[in-house]
Predict the structure.
Amino acid sequence: MGIQLTFHICLRLQRTPVLRAAVSGADTTFNWKGLTMDSQYYGRSKQPKKKSIARIIIFLFLLAAVAALSVFSLSQYMAVQAMQDNLDSLEERFKQVEEENEMLWRQYDEIYEENEKLREENKMLRSTTVINHGNRETNKVAITIDDGTGSALMNRTLDYLKEHNVQATLFPMGSWVEREPEAWRRAVDEGHELGNHTYSHAFLTTISEERIREELNRWEEAVEEALGYSYETLFFRPPGMDGFTSQGSRRQQFMDIIAEKGMFTILWDVELVYALRNEAYTPERITRHVLDNARGGSIVLLHFTESDIAALPAILTGLKDRGLEPCSLSELLLADPEA
Ligand SMILES: [Zn+2]
């Protein structure tokens, strides 16, 4: 052991100039037998060990860093890949949506053309049709009330309709709407529909074409003013049925104007003023007449008079008892026969 160590030291001394110098130094207690060793050499002999530990630590640290970087890069790569996939599928979806969009535009064009054709046909239909009743296959009966009244009777009417859960079609003159805007606003708010009955109850045969247009427009203006928005109606009822009692010479002229305004001329098949002209005009008699004559598809004409409105609850109850359904004109005229 001692010989080996000495031999090793001698080798070192010979080879390393630095060590050779150290051996000759004052602080050296090198013994030739090699039993004790130079402190400097001893100290220096420990340095490589420290270095290698440091190297190992650095190496391990670098290894860890490389590993961490690799994991990080891999995760980044995977994230980018996933984003790319998402992007691809989004692009695919975008293309699909674009195609669908184009198809929808084509369909829209077709529908638009179809609509235009129907509009023309509708106009023709309106200008050649006077409606006295709806489809007889339904159990629906339209309740229509004409002219107008003060707010007290008006609100009573709306209360009755509300109690019976019935929506009706009301044909006020524009002047009444102007006078009682709140009551008419309530009517529309509660689901009743309004039809044009001219502004001043003008008899069509007595006025010019220009005045007729004026009467119709003023009605629209009065309703718009009362409701706060423009209101379109499909229905027109000629005051006093004037111009529609027979095939008068101007009837087609009236109907063309009404059709141009997008409306149908609505008459009735159950009315009271003419039917009961020779009888006592009482709520009981009115009720009986309506219930005896109304059937599926009927259009009942009432007026905002004390007697007619007094009869209204009994009329609504009586119709329902007979299996009929009181409703608005829209509900009747758009009714599905199977329903
Ligand atoms: Zn009237």
